[in-house]
Amino acid sequence: MEALLVLVGGGVGAVARYVLDGLVKSAAGKSFPWGTLTVNVLAAAVLGALHGAGAGTDVEALMGTGLCGALSTFSTFELDTVHLFQNGHHTRAAVYALGSLLLGFAVFLAFHGLLAHLT
Hints:
Elements: H1 2-28, H2 34-53, H3 57-71, H4 74-86, H5 90-118
Helix pairs in contact: 1-2, 1-3, 2-3, 2-5, 4-5
């Protein structure tokens, strides 16, 4: 049953990533990977909230492993960073890499703390 929940959540997460990334790129342009940053930070927020709320195994499978796993994308984050670096945007690549990690942790911890406090 958990594998089916992961499958469903993953399908929704993958489509959500595709749509959100496209919308953000359309609005912000393609000179900086705002779309990847957006989906990764959103997934960190959802995962932090789930863990903070003490979500059960089925919810973790559906929303955590499935939705957040497919919504977030470490490999695209790495590729975006390499592309920035290869295109001579060394400072931008460093800011993106470090900023993504720090922002992701901060958002995870904020939502985890908020939901842990509320539940």
